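Per reviewer request, we include the raw input and output of the structure prediction for the construct analysed in the revised manuscript.
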Amino acid sequence: MTTDLGPFAPTRLWLRVHPLATDAVLAFGAFVAMVVGSFADPHGPHGPTFGTRTPEPFSLVLMLVGAAALVFRRRRPRAVLAVTCGLSLLELTTGEPRAPVVMCAVIALYTLAARTDRPTTWRIGLLTMAGLTGVAMLAGPLPWYAQENLGIFAWTGMAAAAGDAVRSRRAFVDAIRERAERAEQSREEEARRRVAEERLRIARDLHDVVAHHIALVNVQAGVAAHVMDKRPDQAKEALAHVRDASRSALNELRATVGLLRQSGDPEAPTEPAPGLAVLDALVDTFLHAGLPVRVMVQLGREEGPLPAAVDLAAYRVIQEALTNVRKHAGTGARAEVSVVRVGACVEVTVLDDGGSAAAPAPEPAEAGGGHGLLGMRERATALGGSCSAGPRFGGGYRVHAVLPL
């Protein structure tokens, strides 16, 4: 958070960086003002006159010591106030004519009020005002009602009030700056969170695409290699399925990676994300890979289409579940897919019978694998739903997802 310091920005910045030099300049100015004021007589025949009196050497020494003490006013405000008040009391009781040494105490009291809290300012300010004014009225050479005595009371009171006002303003500005920094930090954290969520979503899509299509390519390529010599027609059909699966994988990868392009890039994808509308095409790829799949979809046309996020999540859950069946189930495995709207939710269930010689079930996410299962759970959780997966009684595997609308 920056502050415009105006045309005197370099000078003010230098003074902030060198506070001791700033206090030395202030002390010198206070000394000059006190010396000049000591030559003025407020009781002239026609008002205040200048040059009609001369300060005593002892008063000059007091003014010099008081100004020198002001150099350390920020480092030791209490000690400087005590020293300047002592010097002022000496001048008030002995000076004739009286010199304005009390100006040092006024500056020291302002510094103390600006650098401490309000209760301290009240206590020390009232004590300083009462002490200096009382001594000036009772022990000084002037009458108690002299305007110089009343001036001491007024100047010390104004110094304490001004210092407290400056402290309050600094605290207010610091609070605003801290709030702005906190808001900026919150915006950065929110941006990082959204980036992480987007990366996770893209990673899930990439995993679903690669796991599904590469698994089918692997199966069909194995079939082609197995029957290449004895049944070349079947090998050609398997290679055709490999070509179709790889083309679909490339198209989906292009669409997913296209999300990372700039918004104005003409090569960014414009086709919609996959959903249940293309579920038949997805099932056909598994049929060609040798996995019989039976599908039942009951969504109710009168209730309108599914939200895009729910439609995509349901498609990806089915895709990942069938891919796991093809990869992990035994030979001759069969799968069943059901998508049913139940109230304000859509329930997606994928079952398989395990086949004749089932392979090991997918590893859980905690064991280091199982990114597909984790991705299905994350998709469902992101929509406020749930997803469970586990072995079935009697063999096989079951995936069940509840996706709120």
